[in-house]
Design a protein that fits this description.
The protein is built from 15 helices and twelve strands. The chain is α/β, with parallel strands linked by helices and 375 residues long. It has two domains: 194 residues, 3-Layer(aba) Sandwich (Rossmann fold); 161 residues, Glycogen Phosphorylase B (Rossmann fold, 3-Layer(aba) Sandwich), CATH 3.40.50.2000. The strands form two sheets. A six-stranded parallel β-sheet has the order 2-1-3-4-5-6, with helices on both faces. Helix 12 links the parallel strand 11 and strand 12. Helix 1 packs across helix 15, helix 4 crosses helix 6 and helix 14 runs parallel beside helix 15. It is globular, with a radius of gyration of 22 Å. Pfam families: Glyco_trans_1_4 (PF13692). This is Glycosyltransferase. Keywords: Transferase. It comes from Christiangramia antarctica.
Length: 375
């Protein structure tokens, strides 16, 4: 059995944003099941060269409904290669037009599309902050609709996204799967003092890229909450570079890009996730669970996770919630390592825990044998 893995995110290395980490998990899952030699990759090039020819070429492709990285030439190449594969896995609903073209070209194997988010819904949120980019939503909607209509199987991260897909596109009678975010376990407990307690004032760590939902959430927190609580706030990732241009506050330490993020997470007392926008699942929560961190976040931050939030940390959805909970955290010490969160990671959000779900995707239906392309 052979599978063609089509993506735009970095599929080989973990450093990067949440999307790349999820893509990496997807890729490694299929390699584990089928063998690395049976999984080939097409990584669509999305960076835009800053010259007139490249800009015009990209907008010509947009006019044809092709998202960044796609073109007629790339589509033709995929169609030519498709005969070699029993499965074609498309790692984003941004590229649903590929599903349509494969079906129209009478591809006989299984087309599997992975939804990192319901991108149409996500882009509507983003367009409120950046109305100039609203035009791209027409392309995104067209591609997602094609992904739903022409895929044989669809994978989402949580029940909410599945419901949103049905509400927006009216899911046809196809196989759907919910596979939550997961990681390979990279935490070595022998290096940790399991009895260590949080300090006063506690260190709260926010990790996030410069993605609009991250910027919205942490900006709100700094403006509305920080002056009312006794904590130290660390901000790591792309969001740090954005906020340090907006805020000067002795309580904030802007870390920027951190080569060894694991040590920063381990050393923090709490993980902070004040997120109100977005979709899918928040990868930073899965990381925090893996490292056994106490987490304070919103309903949106915990979306898709099956957790007892009183044991995980706390859910806060407004100003008064955050002030009350954070003041409780700064008034007394507690265990720094949260064994409940670590165990929930191992049970439900580790790589091995989701591997069986990917196996069921490939076992869902029989597929014809692949045909090697004539030389």
């Amino acid at each position: 059995m052979k599978l063609l893995f089509i993506c735009s995110n970095n599929f080989q290395t973990l450093p990067g944003g949440g999307g790349s980490k999820c893509t990496n998990r997807n890729y490694l899952s299929f390699c584990d099941i089928l063998g690395k030699d049976s999984v080939d990759v097409i990584q669509l090039a999305t960076p835009l060269k800053k010259n007139l020819s490249s800009i015009l070429s990209r907008f010509r492709n947009y006019s044809k409904g092709y998202n960044a990285g796609l073109s007629q030439k790339v589509i033709i190449s995929i169609l030519e290669r498709s005969l070699k594969y029993n499965y074609i896995f498309i790692d984003s609903s941004y590229y649903g037009i590929i599903c349509k073209c494969l079906k129209k070209n009478n591809y006989k194997g299984q087309i599997i599309c992975f939804f990192h988010n319901v991108e149409h819904k996500m882009h509507l949120q983003q367009a409120k902050a950046s109305p100039f980019n609203f035009w791209r939503n027409f392309i995104i909607y067209h591609n997602e609709k094609s992904a739903v209509k022409f895929s044989d199987q669809v994978i989402v991260l949580n029940e909410r996204d599945l419901m949103d897909l049905d509400e927006i596109y009216k899911l046809p009678h196809i196989s759907t799967h919910i596979i939550p975010i997961s990681f390979k376990d990279s935490y070595h407990l022998e290096k940790i003092n399991l009895q260590e307690q949080t300090i006063i004032p506690p260190v709260f760590l926010f990790v996030g890229s410069d993605w609009f939902a991250n910027i919205h959430g942490i900006t709100w927190f700094v403006e509305e909450i920080l002056d009312h609580v006794d904590i130290k706030l660390q901000i790591a990732g792309g969001a740090s570079n954005v906020l340090k241009k907006k805020f000067i506050n002795s309580k904030i330490q802007f870390l920027g890009f951190v080569p060894d993020l694991a040590s920063v997470i381990v050393n923090a007392d709490f993980i902070l996730a004040p997120l109100f926008k977005g979709g899918g699942m928040k990868v930073k929560i899965c990381e925090a669970l893996m490292y056994g961190k106490n987490i304070v976040g919103t309903k949106e931050a915990f979306m898709g996770y099956d957790l007892d939030l009183q044991q995980t940390g706390a859910e806060c959805n407004n100003k008064s919630d955050f002030i009350r909970v954070l003041n409780e955290c700064s008034s007394s010490k507690r265990q720094k390592f949260n064994i409940y969160n670590r165990n929930r990671f191992l049970e439900s959000y580790s790589f091995t825990s989701t591997l069986e779900k990917f196996k069921r995707v490939l076992e869902k239906s029989d597929v014809p044998a692949s045909k090697e392309t004539p030389h």
